[in-house]
Write a structure and sequence with these properties.
Length: about 350
């Protein structure tokens, strides 16, 4: 593949946005570093990230990153309504890249009505207008991108806010390692003449992607892979997590046939996957990998949890981009989403 091949199907340059991810990471961290939310988690009992789509995935990455260390639970809400447990002792981060996501705006208003502590993250729009009007803390991130292509801004904002309010201790070594790793990956995966991301995309070109992973650090990365394939390549993608899939989905592989031959399985692995989950991954591969049309396993890279997480997030973004190009699909526009919003606006 050549860069000119990408340009022909990618006129709005999703390739450039993905290649710019390390710069987003650096700039996003700088923008959020001096942000003062004006509160801490003292006296709080829950943190909620309210968002949808590309604006919510950062919340999932935060949730899985801090699950083993956070002193209070973190929940991601993708809905108009907040859970019943949200009270004045809750913190709600309303995350909407455009600032106009109707579900997030509804959750914002409900959080205010319940007396929760609210902070907003957006590039502009109605959410920031309301935050300013009500004197609420907000962090404005750069606009002009598809929400899914702005993860470098939205996730660094959420993670840095989490540091400021005391959910997680700052770890500059992890931030630095992640920056360096993303820069290295950008050089390697950005070379369209050949790389691991392109090879995975080629294997998935005529197959239905199934993304498997453990339930821990890789759970949100699994979701990110599926969403990126769906939005960038316009290809259905399914997935599941260990150990749960060993208690149900594995039986769907019992009688292999033409449908199974159309499936391409990618297993996301991390060295901190539970030891029994790692054993389950090995046994599952031995039992069913030859029943799929394609089966591959990819290992996270880096030392820190943050670097390992983002190493596979970044790989998945590149796989989705190359898959779109191979399919001759413009990765940027999402016409069905646009049509859905236009129709809902009239009813």
């Amino acid at each position: 593949m050549r860069l000119e091949d990408i340009r022909r199907v990618d006129p709005q340059r999703m390739y450039d946005a993905i290649r710019d991810f390390p710069e987003q990471w650096r700039r996003g961290r700088e923008l959020a570093r001096d942000f003062d939310p004006g509160f801490t988690l003292e006296g709080k009992d829950h943190l909620i990230v309210a968002g949808m789509g590309g604006s919510a995935i950062g919340g999932d990455l935060l949730r899985t990153l801090v699950a083993d260390t956070a002193r209070l639970p973190v929940t991601v809400v993708r809905h108009y309504q907040l859970p019943g447990f949200v009270t004045e002792r809750s913190v709600v981060i309303a995350s909407s890249y455009s600032g106009n996501t109707e579900e997030t705006l509804a959750a914002f208003e409900e959080a205010r009505a319940r007396g929760a502590t609210v902070v907003c993250v957006a590039s502009g729009g109605e959410l920031l207008r309301r935050a300013r009007a009500e004197g609420l803390p907000y962090l404005q991130i750069p606009g002009g991108l598809q929400p899914r292509a702005a993860l470098g801004y939205s996730f660094t904002a959420l993670l840095t806010i989490a540091e400021h309010i005391g959910l997680v201790a700052p770890d500059e070594a992890a931030w630095h390692e992640t920056q360096e790793l993303l820069e290295q990956q950008s050089e390697v995966f950005g070379d369209p003449s050949g790389n691991d991301a392109l090879e995975l995309a080629e294997a998935l070109q005529d197959r239905l992607p199934f993304i498997y992973s453990g339930t821990g650090l890789m759970e949100a990365v699994n979701l990110r892979w599926r969403c990126q394939i769906q939005e960038n390549a316009k290809r259905l993608a399914s997935g599941n997590v260990y150990p749960e899939l060993n208690h149900n989905e594995i039986m769907g592989w019992e009688y292999p046939g033409p449908l199974h031959e159309m499936i391409g399985v990618i297993v996301l692995r991390d060295r901190e996957d539970h030891p029994r989950v790692q054993q389950r991954m090995e046994v599952t591969r031995e039992l069913i990998s030859d029943r799929a049309g394609y089966w591959a396993e990819v290992q996270s890279q880096g030392e820190s949890r943050l670097a390992r997480m983002m190493s596979l997030v970044n790989l998945g973004d590149w796989v989705s981009l190359y898959l779109a190009v191979l399919l001759g699909v413009d990765p940027t526009p999402v016409p069905l989403i646009g049509q859905l919003k236009e129709t809902l606006a009239r009813v």
